[in-house]
Amino acid sequence: MRIYFAPCGIALGHAGRCIPIARHFKSRGHEVFFSTYGEATEFVRKAGFPVEGVPPLKFYEKEDGTFDFRRTLSAGPRSLLVFSQQVGAELNLIEHFKPDLVISDSRLSTVLAARMRRIIPVLILHQLRIMIPHSRPIKRRIKQVIKGYTERLGLEILGSLWKLSKVIIVPDFPPPFTIAKVNIVPSHQYIKKLKLVGPIIPKRPEELPPSYDLKRMMGFDDRPLIFAAMSGTLAEKKYISDLLLRIFEEFPDSYNVVLSRGYSEGSFPGAKIPANSKRLRVYDWVDDRYLYLKACDLLVTRGGHNTVSEAIYYGKPMLIIPTPAHSEHQGIAESLSKMGLAISLQQHSLSRENLLTAVKEALESSIISIRIEEASRYASQFNAVESIYRIVCDLLSRSCE
């Protein structure tokens, strides 16, 4: 088979979950090809796959990583032009590669291009409902009603387009441990096409040595190990990484800390890595974050869907610092807090004292410890990569052997 992958290029999460699927297909002797844009293009290339860049869609952010709704909205006409260019680029690339099936991760342009080329499109999507971002609580009833109706209208408009996919794969858990509860609200137009397969993770915890052994291999002692793994757009990662670095430098010696700023090569030319100490290690990028995830006692995260999914598989309590006005991160932080899997701390409240209090609460809470163990056992029954492989084979009516 020839499989064409088209992940969204905003941040690295979409490409990050397509890569393990592509590796699985390649290991079974099939050919794969990628199209994406932005930071994700070089990320896919370094993973060893052929990739072509297409015109990049983008949204605007403020200096602190907050979504800039006004600037993004004002760029609407320009975005429509880029979208049409992206569809054209996808048409050319699909014609050149001649795939049997196209897997789009959150990209409508690829779904449309696949249908135009009469190629089967499969969609990976965990944000079925797009939430209107807001940095402050909406208190007025009329504004809440308008927001709800607008989001519902957007759901149905997008639904009329997403339904062009043959199958819509949702990489999340079914209840009771659904991660993105507020986003996984389907339109009636495609509800029969939905398949919840569980989150996609490149490396399962059972593939690695025990946590204690990993700590020793890395040179850590018995102090609790905090792994702060930053993800998101470049603006998000830079602001929060700089802020956390200043705080962690003043943290008590009773903790070991690893801060991964999530800067892929070339993200910030000339950026310097601070001198590491025995208790604080700072990296621009870690090649195998799963070693640190398995070894750590607590994960500090922005609340990206992939990262929190991996933490659940690995049975790690979380401290989530969601990006302001980022509806997905905020929704996930609220969802995991209610499930007893994480502590949530807003960026505007981030200080040494508040972070230290939240860390202690997350590490010492018996409720979080029990709930994360339950969620990890639940997660162990899912193998999303194999499920997606079987779905594709069934669609093409070919042997998976």
UniProtKB/TrEMBL annotation:
Domain Glycosyl transferase family 28 C-terminal: 246-365
Gene3D superfamilies: Glycogen Phosphorylase B
Molecular functions (GO terms): hexosyltransferase activity
PANTHER family named among the record's database cross-references: GLYCOSYLTRANSFERASE (PTHR21015:SF22), UDP-N-ACETYLGLUCOSAMINE--N-ACETYLMURAMYL-(PENTAPEPTIDE) PYROPHOSPHORYL-UNDECAPRENOL N-ACETYLGLUCOSAMINE TRANSFERASE 1 (PTHR21015)
Family (UniProt): Belongs to the glycosyltransferase 28 family.
Name of protein: Glycosyl transferase family 28 C-terminal domain-containing protein
Species name: Thermoproteota archaeon
